[in-house]
Amino acid sequence: MTEPRQRLVSTPRFDAWRAELCIALAPRGAKTDLARFMAGERGMPVHNWRSRITRMLRDGEVINAEDLLAISAWMKSRAG
């Protein structure tokens, strides 16, 4: 039996970060780019990262601090 996934406790700062991530992922292919980046950074396969990113945005799945920092670094690199 699998344990239920943890849900995110929402805070205004995290909500703003997540909104920025949604904007960064709006262009076509951006989610795949992020998944490739995270696969290189964290070592999980790209398809797993695509699923995880989708769950995080859609279902509010909890992510750890290392993932949050890596995603933030990706967003900064895309911003220029």
Considering the chains and any ligands shown, give keywords for the structure.
80 residues, mainly alpha, globular
Describe the structure.
69% of the residues lie in helices and 0% in strands. The protein is an all-alpha fold. Helix 2 (30-42) packs across helix 3 (46-59) and helix 2 crosses helix 4. The mean pLDDT is 87.
Helix content: 55-70%
Look at the helices and sheets and give the structural class: mainly alpha
What is the overall number of helices?
Answer: 4
The poorly predicted ranges are: none
Q: Kindly state the mean pLDDT as a whole number?
A: 87
Main sheet makeup: none
Along the chain, the helix and strand elements come as HHHH
What is the approximate shape?
A: globular
> How much of the sequence is in beta strands?
under 5%
Distance between the termini: 45 Å
Please give the radius of gyration in angstroms.
12 Å
> Quick one: how many beta strands?
0
